[in-house]
């Protein structure tokens, strides 16, 4: 499977939005998006021309896909699944993405970024209902308890992330027990819980062509 290995700061600059792909660095004065808030490349500082409707839809899809760290194939599968569900397709898509295990551990504050969350899940640092799960795309369900393995609780990166959880906050659909290093999914997220600027209807229009 193809995986992007370049500078993730370029992705934020390309999408003209801070995607918080590098954890603490995104909050510091070292953030490349704050220092160079224009698209990457030798023509990045030129005046931008008018973008077509297709271009706007494509950029929105790319932005959300990169925010959650998915490949094109993975993202399309999530869309197809959302399209088959009852309700609004765009909202279904975002809810599915939010319920991924790598995103949930990030939202709970166990890690500093979704990328780090995916890495730690792969290395079996987290338990779901007491059982080891090492699949980042695992869908967390209402009532599931996500905890840090006993052997992993001394990892410096996890401790640092929990110390910084106040800065990001924990969404209302999750509940964090910081001392016990565990959290629970109380309810499914709703559209209002997703505060990043996303226009999911543009993605639906793109895939519906």
Q: Could you give me the name of the CATH homologous superfamily of the largest domain?
A: RNA-binding S4 domain
> Which class of the largest domain in CATH terms?
Alpha Beta
- Label the structural class: alpha+beta
Number of strands: 5
The order of strands across the largest sheet is 2-1-3-5-4
What is the N-to-C order of secondary-structure elements (H for helix, E for strand)? HHHHHHHEEEHHEEH
Looking at the structure, the CATH topology of the largest domain is Structural Genomics Hypothetical 15.5 Kd Protein In mrcA-pckA Intergenic Region, Chain A
N/C terminus separation: 26 Å
Whole-number count of domains: 3
Model description:
The chain folds into 3 domains: 1-49, Ribosomal Protein S4 Delta 41, Chain A, domain 1, CATH 1.10.1050; 54-98 and 196-209, Orthogonal Bundle (Ribosomal Protein S4 Delta 41, Chain A, domain 1), CATH 1.10.1050.10; 100-187, Structural Genomics Hypothetical 15.5 Kd Protein In mrcA-pckA Intergenic Region, Chain A (Roll), CATH 3.10.290.10. The radius of gyration is 18 Å and the shape is globular. The protein has 209 residues and is α+β, with helices and mostly antiparallel strands. Strands 2-1-3-5-4 form a 5-stranded antiparallel β-sheet, covered by helices on one side. Helix 4 crosses helix 5 (89-98) and helix 6 (101-108) crosses helix 7 (114-122). The model has no long low-confidence stretch (mean pLDDT 85). The protein has 10 helices and 5 strands, in the order αααααααβββααββα.
């Amino acid at each position: 499977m193809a995986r992007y290995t370049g500078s993730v700061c370029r992705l934020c600059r390309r999408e003209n939005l801070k995607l918080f792909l590098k954890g603490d660095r995104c909050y510091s004065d070292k953030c490349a998006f704050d220092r160079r808030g224009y698209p990457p490349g030798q023509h990045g500082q030129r005046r931008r021309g008018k973008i077509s409707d297709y271009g706007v839809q494509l950029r929105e899809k790319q932005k959300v896909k990169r925010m959650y760290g998915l490949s094109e194939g993975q993202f399309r599968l999530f869309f197809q699944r959302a399209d088959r569900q009852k309700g609004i397709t765009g909202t279904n898509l975002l809810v599915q993405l939010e319920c991924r295990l790598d995103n949930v551990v990030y939202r709970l504050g166990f890690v500093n970024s979704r990328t780090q969350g995916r890495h730690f899940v792969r290395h079996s640092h987290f338990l779901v209902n007491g059982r080891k799960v090492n699949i980042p795309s695992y869908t967390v369900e209402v009532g599931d308890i996500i905890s840090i393995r006993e052997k992993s609780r001394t990892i410096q990166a996890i401790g640092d992330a929990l110390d910084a959880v106040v800065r990001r906050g924990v969404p209302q659909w999750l509940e964090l027990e910081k001392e016990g290093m565990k959290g629970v999914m109380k309810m499914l997220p709703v559209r209002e819980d997703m505060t990043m600027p996303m226009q999911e209807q543009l993605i639906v229009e793109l895939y519906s062509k």
